[in-house]
């Protein structure tokens, strides 16, 4: 996904339909503009975020995400999760908590980048096995996403305590 | 007589089509009104040449209220009837007011919703009515200066204002007889004022420290589009708090007790404020306090002492700054420009700390008191339709998450904070009793898990759900946040396709009925002929609709409509022109509705065509990275 192109396309479209363009127009136009602008915002958010984008592409391929959740049996992945969580637990006690958080964030970022590479391959081949693999990769990405949120919450808490 | 409008060469709007629009900064301490004239946005002064209008209203029994500097003069002698900093009370409840209460020496009485009323010599008034008085004064000033009636205004609000506070501001505008085209966030307005150089690109931080509120916004500017990435703030942190800190120290020095009278407190605050302002240039300033018993205390306040007293407040402002950077996913190094807004940013310590925190010298060239009004005026000009070719676009965000109360006092988040608006989310509900025809939803704003830790926004009561077996109904509730950041709720029972009617019970605001009553009362009070005003309003609206239709048909009528469709629209337009020439406002209103009905398919076609044009020549493949 070329984010630069996505951004400029998004702005072009919003320029056309945004409610500010129709502030002095009639009821019907304003209501339509609201619907369109909302839809475009929705579309942009979906395509911009790798996790949402992945899910969307899976849906488009006809893969049903509502089926039973995958249990992740990838031991390497599970080990990684445990290590990251342990590292997170040790942040408070470390000599430089913010640096420690930074390291964890970088690790997660690298993991997500490799998952994205895998997803790119999966979607290009798009066979049944690939879609299955993509679903698995997305599930892993979700784990990482949750971890990222926990890291950010911890960073916020530490910063608030500084004051 | 209207001033001659001199158009810039290249401006496509003909001079006689210029619509009068203004931007209003409704501030805690001071308010301003600005407008674009001959291509430049300026604040409008009063007859005495003063640009700032103190946000103070004084009420007296049986007399019209006084607004501005004259009211401020009475603050010390008549503190209970002289209402200042009413912005701190907008959209707030009685518990919030108690928290701020010690610094605001007013008498409160309970109102119909959770919002308290102010008890004054002229009766019990809501903060909305007080704000409306200020807006009325600015409306008069603008209309007298510009020589005509305002078509529309943009009113600014702190980016961190919640739905109740925004709604209260909109209601105040309505009560003042203004057509509020948009509520604009103050930091975004400031960015607009500075972003006149359309070629600039980058990430901007807006640090807005006013009298009562603090806002920080992180924006990305790219070829005329301002995109808000995140916003945070503290709606109870501002210059007033600095005044209080200094006043507290002065009271200690002068041996005045905490339980001093309202007049004494007001005096202390004014002395504190003057001293603080003097220390922007001086390193030490003399201070003189009049005690209640007639004695005086004289001393000095140094900048060092001032810095010690206000340092904790300045540090407090950096907490939301960090949060905003985090939410935007940027570091301080990514921030190219910092813009300072609000009179309190003149304080040297504030500028020093901000420069160090962001690693950039803050921009202060536009008067920090005027910059917000100027930005609002620029947007008002565009929204009124004076600049059809302007490329500027503001993409703002909702500052606080919206959620609903679920079992056990928990909050389920429906729309997360920093979502770009307008936005909508739908949620499915069902009934739990056989034959249930109603449902109540409690909507809150905030980031916490428990309802009690969030701000209650309103209760939405759904009626007319078709009676069914418990659990069979599929009620789709759509939460929509518009470009003003205001929430609208719609509900539809899907299996039968029946739309529910929704009754809104705001937690801290006025219901539609109450506003209608106030509007009626205020018109009676002003001696206005209600019907004459309604007629004029409908005629203005009719002109607007006909004008827009003419322009649209000229642009693409031939392309998009066949002869039969065109004839239908022409007939409706003709009927409107006839009605407009008459005296019956109801007939005009009906004719407007008929024109909108006749042209609705055309309008939809036009919008789809613009979208197609914007998408034309682009393949889906373009998104693939190298």
Could you describe the 3D structure shown?
The complex is a heterodimer of chains A (163) and B (626). With 163 residues, chain A is mainly α. Chain A is 79% helix and 0% strand. In chain B, strand 11, helix 4 and strand 12 form a beta-alpha-beta unit. In chain B, the strands form seven sheets. In chain B, strands 1, 2, 3, 4, 11 and 12 form a six-stranded mixed β-sheet that branches. In chain B, strands 18-13-14-15-19 form a five-stranded mixed β-sheet, sandwiched between helices. In chain B, strands 21-20-23-24-28 form a five-stranded antiparallel β-sheet, with no helix packed on it. The N terminus of chain B is likely disordered. The interface between A and B is large, with 40 and 56 residues.
Please summarize the sheet with the most strands of chain B. 6 strands, mixed
Number of strands of chain B: 28
Low-confidence stretches of chain B: 1-16
Radius of gyration of chain B: 26 Å
Fraction of residues of chain B in helices? 25-40%
Q: What is the number of beta strands of chain A?
A: 0
Average pLDDT across residues of chain A? 84
Given as residue ranges, the uncertain stretches of chain A (5+ residues, pLDDT < 50) are none
Which chain pair has the greatest contact?
A: A-B, 40 and 56 residues
Strand content of chain A is under 5%
Reading the helices and strands of chain A in chain order gives HHHHHH
* CATH architecture group name of the largest domain in chain A: Up-down Bundle
Provide the CATH topology of the largest domain in chain A: Monooxygenase
Q: What best-fitting shape of chain B do the alpha-carbon axes yield?
A: globular
State the end-to-end CA separation of chain B.
62 Å
Helix content of chain A: over 70%
Task: Specify the number of helices of chain B.
Answer: 14
**Strand percentage of chain B, roughly?**
15-25%
How would the global form of chain A be characterised?
A: flat
